[in-house]
């Protein structure tokens, strides 16, 4: 199964720059971004025995979380399928060329050598673009390799966001572009990838579909 090409955007540097300038400009989006940083800070504090100070930020986008990851004293391997995003990430303020690195990579393939030793992974705002369970489980397996702890988001369908998007797209005669899934579906995909949920927090409970989780390797029976 292949990921839809429409979910792999930012082919040009210009489209990446426009996204960086405009995506979090509105009041509601700024509130969402503020809350995301708050949750990221909280979940990155969850202890993990395999933490070695090295984290994979994938998909890294233009570097929205780079300074936060640095503030946790982590060395960062930043990866994205879009070369434009990787280039923008390297332009992040204070980007350290020696300790950190940014390169193009696909989450549906094994990670590049420089990232493989990382003890943690950070995966924000990707899973709603993976429309099939098979792809989501493959992505979870990539992140989970090397017994990593994962801090990530997915979109849960138990909220107003789901019904309002569905109603709006029905009125427009279009399909909903982001994939929101039931909690039970996510839980079974996590188990299939050999992981367990350690913590789960909703971005804006009942309102927004974005759900943050911390995952860790499931105990072997
Ligand atoms: C909504 S952005 C999120 C970026 C960043 N995590 C953030 O929150 O700002 C989604 C990103 O996923 C990337 N992406 C899509 N499919 C991917 C794949 N198969 N492997 C790696 N990155 C992918 C896109 O290029 C895009 O930069």
Summary keywords:
globular; 221 residues; Rossmann fold; 7 helices; binds S-adenosylmethionine; seven-stranded mixed β-sheet; alpha/beta; single chain
Layout of helices and strands:
Blueprint: H1 13-22, H2 27-44, E1 54-57, H3 66-71, E2 75-80, H4 83-90, E3 101-104, E4 120-123, H5 133-144, E5 149-155, H6 160-172, H7 183-192, E6 195-202, E7 210-217
Parallel strand pairs: 1-2, 1-4, 2-3, 4-5
Antiparallel strand pairs: 5-7, 6-7
**What class, by secondary structure content?**
alpha/beta
Which residues form runs of ≥5 with pLDDT under 50? Answer: none
Strand content: 15-25%
Q: What does the overall shape look like?
A: globular
Side-by-side strand order of the widest sheet: 3-2-1-4-5-7-6
Describe this structure in words.
This protein has a single domain, classed as Rossmann fold, CATH 3.40.50.150. It is 35% helix and 19% strand. The protein contains 7 helices and 7 strands, in the order ααβαβαββαβααββ. It has a 7-stranded mixed beta sheet, sandwiched between helices. It is globular. The chain binds S-adenosylmethionine. S-adenosylmethionine (SAM) is lined by residues 3, 7-10, 58-59, 61, 64, 80-82, 85, 106-108, 124-126, 129.
């Amino acid at each position: 199964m292949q990921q839809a090409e429409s979910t792999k955007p930012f082919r040009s540097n210009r489209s990446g720059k426009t996204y960086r300038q405009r995506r979090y400009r509105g009041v509601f989006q700024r509130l969402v971004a503020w809350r995301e940083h708050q949750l990221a800070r909280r979940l990155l504090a969850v202890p993990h025995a395999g933490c070695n100070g090295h984290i994979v930020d994938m998909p890294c986008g233009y570097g929205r979380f780079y300074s936060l990851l640095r503030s946790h004293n982590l060395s960062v391997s930043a990866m994205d399928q879009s070369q434009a995003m990787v280039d923008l990430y390297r332009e992040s303020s204070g980007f350290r060329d020696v300790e950190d690195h940014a390169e193009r990579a696909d989450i549906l393939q094994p990670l590049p050598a420089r990232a493989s030793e990382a003890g943690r992974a950070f995966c924000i705002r990707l899973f709603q673009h993976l429309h099939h369970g098979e792809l989501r489980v493959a992505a979870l397996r990539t992140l989970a390799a090397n017994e990593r702890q994962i801090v990530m988001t997915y979109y849960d369908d138990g909220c107003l966001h789901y019904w309002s998007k569905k109603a709006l797209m029905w009125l427009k005669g279009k399909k909903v572009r982001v994939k929101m899934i039931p909690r039970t579906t996510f839980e079974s995909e996590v188990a299939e990838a050999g992981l367990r949920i350690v913590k789960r927090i909703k971005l804006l409970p009942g309102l927004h579909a974005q759900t943050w989780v911390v995952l860790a390797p499931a105990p072997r029976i």
